[in-house]
Design brief:
By secondary structure, the protein is an alpha+beta fold. It folds into 2 domains: 61 residues, Orthogonal Bundle (Arc Repressor Mutant, subunit A), CATH 1.10.10; 182 residues, Beta-Lactamase, CATH 3.30.450. 46% of the residues lie in helices and 19% in strands. A hairpin with a 2-residue loop joins strand 4 and strand 5. Helix 1 crosses helix 3, helix 2 crosses helix 3 and helix 6 packs antiparallel against helix 10. The mean pLDDT is 93.
């Protein structure tokens, strides 16, 4: 779930909000939709959805084939503008690629976004796992080591809100589904400085993450190594990957200080 919009004010453009909600309605489960489907997914009336779609078609971001609508490649401009302006390729990817080359694991950088973790950068391997990830992927924070690594190093009031509002959806029998259990888990993460997860989002996936810190001791993001449980056991992953992740995190934190725009962007995600 994405972060909810701030309360309306005179400077808030509800028309822009509606247009963005239409773009966000399309995903792997909804690659093409009729008007009524777009309206339902976006939570808009058919009349409003129709005006948004017609505008987006005119601007080239949406195509219409018969009664169905779908995104056009032009929407990639938005994501590429972020990656370019924040210098992700030069600042973040070399560290993730080094982790991938050293370990053979997939490696990612993510931030917390509402009740999810949002992948900002990702380097994959050729190994197949059941749940794929990439830039823009979202997973519920409570079931991902990235999410726990970030949440554990938030101010007490933020942690309390996360525990009070998270839906704690169960994905497997190992998913943490209660605030009490998660509170204890976050205490352990804060003590040890890393978060691990095995079979929590889906069976056969194991990962370990460490936080990236901005000003003070508040985590603004996290990086991870992720692989299959058939390849590496959780205890071995922690023993062998955590030192590498900590070294990469130190390098990234130093780079963020040299590129403050990216640090500010991650901190407000």
């Amino acid at each position: 779930m994405r972060a909810k919009a701030e309360p309306k004010d005179p400077e808030y453009l509800s028309t822009l909000e509606r247009g963005l909600s239409v773009l966000r309605a399309f995903d792997h489960e909804h690659p093409e939709m009729q008007l009524s489907e777009v309206a339902a997914v976006a939570g808009l009336s058919p009349a409003v959805a129709r005006r948004c779609l017609n505008t987006l078609v005119r601007l080239g971001y949406v195509a219409q084939h018969g009664r169905r609508f779908l995104l056009r490649p032009e929407v990639l401009e938005f994501g590429s503008a972020y990656l370019s302006s924040m210098n992700i390729e030069r600042i973040v990817l070399p560290q993730l690629q080094a982790l991938r080359d050293q370990t053979g694991d997939s490696s990612s950088l993510a931030v917390r976004s509402g009740e999810d973790v949002l992948y900002v950068a990702h380097v994959s391997t050729n190994r197949h796992i059941r749940i794929g990830a990439g830039v823009g992927t979202r997973f519920p924070w409570h079931a991902a080591s990235l999410g726990k690594a970030i949440a554990a190093f938030q101010p007490d009031d933020v942690v309390a809100e996360l525990l009070a509002t998270a839906p704690f959806q169960r994905f497997t029998e190992r998913t943490i589904t209660t605030a009490g259990e998660m509170r204890e888990t976050l205490r352990e993460v804060r003590t040890h400085g890393y978060a691990a997860a095995q079979d929590e989002l889906d069976y056969g996936i194991v990962s370990v993450s460490v936080p990236l810190f901005g000003a003070g001791r508040t985590a603004i993001a996290a990086i991870n190594c992720s692989t299959s449980t058939t390849r590496v056991a959780a205890d071995e992953l922690v023993r062998t990957r955590v030192p590498l992740l900590r070294e990469a995190a130190q390098e990234l934190e130093a780079a963020l200080h040299r590129w403050p725009a990216l640090e500010r962007s991650l901190a407000t995600a």
